[in-house]
Every structure is written in C-alpha cells, then in structure tokens.
Amino acid sequence: MPNWKSLRNLDFPITKKHVYLDHAAGGVIARPVFLAAAKFWNETYQEGDFRWSAWLRRKEEARSAVARFINAEPEEVAFTPNTSEGMNLVADLFEGEGEVLASEMEFPASTVPWLHRKMPLRFLKASANQTLPSDFLRAIRSKTKIIVSSYVQYASGFRQDLAGLSKIARQNSCRFVVNASQALGAFPIDVKAMGIDALAANSYKWMLAGYGCGIVYVRKEILRAVPPRFAGWRSVNNPERYDNRRADIKSEASRYEYGGPAFANFFALQAACEYMTSIGKEAITRRILYLTDYLIGKLKKSAIPVLSPLEPSMRSGIVIAQVPNPGAAARRLFRGGIFVTPRGGGIRIAPHFYNNEKELDKFIQVLSSK
C-alpha cells in the first residue's frame, strides 16, 4: 500500500494552504513533473539549443513511457497540445465513413470535430446520467460506422464499460473512438484489451502534468491505411534532411507532430506516467474510489442528493452533489479555500489520491454552512 500521507506531504505543496478537489477541471502538478519540466527550461536557459539532439532522444523516451502507460506501441502514439486536437486528427482519419453515434452527455471536444466536418452525428438519450453499451447496441443502424464515447463523463461521473462497448462496435463493424480525458491518470487504460481504435486525452487533469500537452493513440493498421490531411517538416521520415521538394510522410503517429516540439510538456507527461506507475495505477484507482465512497457517505448523512451513478462499475473520480444555486455554493467554497466546479446540475467534486478524509470533511462542513 503506498504511503499516501508521505506522497501528499512531499509532492503536493498546495495541500498546506488549500483543499483542491477540482481535478476534473484541471489538476495540480506533482513535484516530479515540475522537476522534469524545470530541468528542460534550465537547460535551454543555460545552453540554448545545444541539447537539441538529446532532447529529441528524450522525446522518444517520453513517447515510449506514454505508450507503456496505455499498453500501446510507440509508433501508435503522438503528442498533441490537447484533447481537441487529438480528436480532430481522429475525425480526419474517419471522415466520410458514415454516421457517428455518441451519448448526449459528451463534452464538446468529442463531438465538435465531427460536426465541423458535416458528418452525420446522432446522440443517445441518457437515462439516470448513463448510456450503457446496451443502449448503443439498440441505437446502431446500418449507417452507423463510428462510436464515440468518453471513458468517464465530465458532467456526471459515469464510467463507461469500454470493453463491453468495444465488443459491440466490433460486432457491428464500427470504429471505436474514446475520449479519455476524465480517466487517464485515474483509471488504468489498456487500448489493446479494451479494443480501442483511437483515443485522445490531455495531460492537465488527472495526469497531474500541467497544461499544454495531450496524446492521441491510433491503431497502427489504421495509420498505415489512411494518410494524414496535414503535414509539417517533422512529419517526414528524415526531417533532418530538410528536403523541401519531397513529402515522404511517416506512417507512424508522430507524423502529427508537425514542427518544433514542446519538449517541456512532453517531458512533464513522461514524468507523470513514470510517477503514477511507480505508485501503482491500480492502487491510485482504489484510493480515488475509496475517497469518493467516503464522500458519498458524508453527502448522504448530510441529506445532500448525489446525481452521479452509484453502481460500483459506473463510479469514477467525479461526484456530483445536488445543491441549490451551484454557482453561489462554489464561490462560497472558494472563499473557504476549497476548489470545486459547478457542473452537471450541482457541485462537481473530483479528489485525487493525495487528498484525504479531513479535506472531504471540511468540504461538507463549508458546503452545509449558511
């Protein structure tokens, strides 16, 4: 069992002043992540571009770390600035294939790229803040060729059964696309075992790696079959040749890293992957679910309704507490040094592994005060 108290005290100085329960909006940065990014900035501060070749090698080490984190192959992973760009790259690959099916609960990053391309997009109605694989199965028709789903829904905390939904997608010859922004870093992801064709996520929520980085995973068979719409000087097989008369585009996902790399962000995400792996991904998940279970118990004792699904298989790191005037409640909590977000018809609470019971008790106390 990891020493949660020790990790909290060593790696998260925010806990000395504030109660931070807003990881579904934007997470704090863990100390090893800060040090990894600072190391790069110090190198470029001291030596300019002198370490370019070393940075390129480290970028590939970072790619391998991300690939291991989701059980992909390095050639299937590209760095992006955020989830939205990753989803746009996926939409480019599948444009024109047919109808897209998604839950009405999706965050717009999952849907706007398809809408922008005028692809037919049909929404599933949610019941009790959930859309089950069986709901998708009933909704599939001959035109349906792409299923898009978040692993965890941002405004309800509903956690999708990705393996079950993937099986339905395969049985009906549909592509399976996942937005993992509200899960990566909180729940283990195995793109192979889960049968995912493409996935997009970011670094700044549950990964605790700060803004400016994301990832896109695309199964290598798809990458090799469909050329990219956009390309840059680093999209080619030998960019250091500086050949401006030929576009020898890579078949690997790194073709989407068009120009000068955001090295600091890549190294930060690598550090986050290695940090969470050293703690134990499954241990982190158990800790998050323990804290949300503790919180739900406290909310029930305070007669505060919980809008998130309560079934264990659908639970996540997000809990929505139904309160009158969520915006005013969030402002009152903020004045008390507690960070949450009004969302999903209530207050969204999203603790991570370094949070503790005392912080959740304080949240309940301030929320219940007049």
Q: What is the strand and helix layout of this fold?
A:
Elements: H1 4-11, E1 19-20, H2 31-47, H3 52-70, E2 77-80, H4 83-94, E3 99-103, H5 112-116, E4 121-124, H6 133-139, E5 144-150, H7 162-171, E6 175-179, E7 198-202, E8 214-218, H8 220-225, H9 263-279, H10 281-301, E9 319-321, H11 326-335, E10 338-339, E11 341-343, E12 346-349, H12 357-368
Helix pairs in contact: 2-9, 3-9, 6-7, 10-12
Give an overview in words:
With 370 residues, the chain is α/β, with parallel strands linked by helices. It folds into two domains: 4-21 and 280-368, Aspartate Aminotransferase, domain 1 (Alpha-Beta Complex); 34-278, Aspartate Aminotransferase, domain 2 (3-Layer(aba) Sandwich), CATH 3.40.640. Helices cover 39% and strands 13% of the residues. It contains twelve helices and twelve strands. Strands 2-8-7-6-5-3-4 form a seven-stranded mixed beta sheet, with helices on both faces. Strands 9-12-11 form a three-stranded antiparallel beta sheet, with helices on one face. A two-stranded parallel sheet has the order 1-10. Strand 3, helix 5 and strand 4 form a beta-alpha-beta unit. The chain is globular, with a radius of gyration of 21 Å. The two termini are 39 Å apart.
